[in-house]
Specification:
- The protein is of the alpha/beta class.
- The protein folds into two domains: about 5-140, Sandwich (Immunoglobulin-like), CATH 2.60.40.10; about 145-349, HAD superfamily/HAD-like (Rossmann fold, 3-Layer(aba) Sandwich), CATH 3.40.50.
- About 35% of the residues lie in helices and about 30% in strands.
- The protein has helices at about 5-25, 55-60, 65-70, 160-170, 185-195, 210-220, 245-260, 275-285, 300-305, 335-349; strands at about 30-40, 45-55, 80, 85-90, 95-100, 105-110, 120-125, 130-140, 145-150, 155, 180, 200-205, 225-230, 265-270, 290-295, 325-330.
- Strands 1, 2, 3, 4, 5, 6, 7 and 8 form an eight-stranded mixed sheet that branches. Strands 13-12-9-14-15-16 form a six-stranded parallel sheet, with helices on both faces. Strands 10-11 form a two-stranded antiparallel sheet.
- α5 packs parallel to α10.
- It is globular, with a radius of gyration of 21 Å.
- The protein starts with 6 loop residues before the first helix and ends with a helix.
- Mean pLDDT is about 80; it is low at about 60-75, about 235-240 and about 315-320.
Length: about 350
Amino acid sequence: MSTRPFVGARAEEYLRTRVNRRLEKSSWHPTVIPYVGYGTSDHIRVLARVVLTPRDARSHLGQAAEGFLQQRGWRNFFGAPVPRAEVTVQMRGSRMEVRADRGGYVDVRLKLDDLEPGIHEAEVVTRDGQVSLVPVQVVSSEETFGLVSDLDDTVISTSLPRLFIAAWNSFVVTEEGRRAVPGMARMYQQMLAEHPGAPVIYVSTGAWNTHAFLTRFLARHGFPKGAMLLTDWGPTNTGWFRSGPDHKRQSLRELARDFPNIKWVLVGDDGQHDPSLYAEFAELQPDRVRAIAIRQLSMTEQVLAHGSTTVLSDDDHMAWNPERVPEVRAPDGDELWPRLRAVLAEADD
């Protein structure tokens, strides 16, 4: 069996390399896009992406275009990813030289000692010496409560066919043009008021290119700050499309490993695979799940999510015992929170 990457991945990397050579001759330079990472007192996870950008965007796009790009997601797509970019990640004396993946993404963990809880900054240094600061949310090693949340249809009301959501968010809509799911921000705020040091991690199949839009949207609607674990567009090493469920499975496994003392509240919706993925994780690692909360989509939202008026069900094979890890369901946060608070209080007794 061949160990070479899928032909689509090879073609994509070849084209990126050719394009980047021409851009570099036009004075484009490597720039680091920082994403919020996370960690504990003894390690951090740093997330970023290396892209080529023009040294003076206005000279390339014009002042009018620049104003438009400030409002729309197009700006996110004007950087050319740098495949296999070499960077140095460092923080408080710990230093590691790493190579980005073929999409320019940097995802690395550093061992550290005695980090205080709060927001810290790691440095990502490019080959030409440009230093970028990447935020890292450090959680107390004694914290035992955490929140994992989906995004589309869980906190953001999409009202679009799932196939078009990422493109619409990225290219057209500003954060002012999207609606938050009623009550979800209030539910998260009240949950964190009872657990002020708890980490919040948003796990979604949305594209990394929408990170800036999502950050602004969450802040605008009162959602708590937290790291996002998103995906990349384009072919993988094995096929044309990435698996959303596999991305979420891997993210949950990594969170269980990185925060061994935390039991998570998992929040999602019933428009795609969240119920079965959360149930699967709860069955495999019941000591890492405190409760599951599922937002129930309306009939119209179900059609837009997966083309059917019925709730998607792919967990018939599961031998999950709902009495072991409690699950609650409701159409919005205002109805979810009383039910979730009740099962959390019962679990804490």
